[in-house]
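Much of our argument rests on the idea that a fold can be written as discrete symbols. The record that follows shows the chain in one-letter code together with its fold in token form.
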Amino acid sequence: MPMTADEAKAFMLAGRSIFTTRSRRTGKSYTYKVTRQDENKPWWRVGVLSGPDNQSDYTYIGSVGWDASRYPTPSFFPPKDKAPAPSAGAFKWVLDAAFTAPESFAGQVEFLHEGRCGRCTRPLTDPDSITSGYGPECRKRMGMG
């Protein structure tokens, strides 16, 4: 089930999320893996699926940094040593749209989680978990019920 902008924002930065985005205009899709490197620092590593193994074949395309107490939205930083890949531009667009244009987000992009908890990566099995993208324990820890 596609997620709303608010759901996508939380899921992207949950800590260990894997998700696919598809442009409603072009039909182009990418699968991303976004992992928080340190629970005490507001930085996430972003990779794009680049091979057949959807658990480990991810190529680094940049980082997300965000200090919510200082900045209203997170920023995406592609590597400085090479030209940004199309997948990096697409990720930046999805991130920016989710945070700055939530009213048009769902009309322009489909955001789909891959059936694993965005926080701990355990497989999701019950309907509430599949819909939300988080298992029951992680929902409690994140204050979601």
About this structure: The chain has a mean pLDDT of 91. The chain has five helices and six strands. The beta strands are 16-23, 29-36, 43-49, 58-65, 75-77, 109-113. The first strand starts at residue 16 and ends at 23.
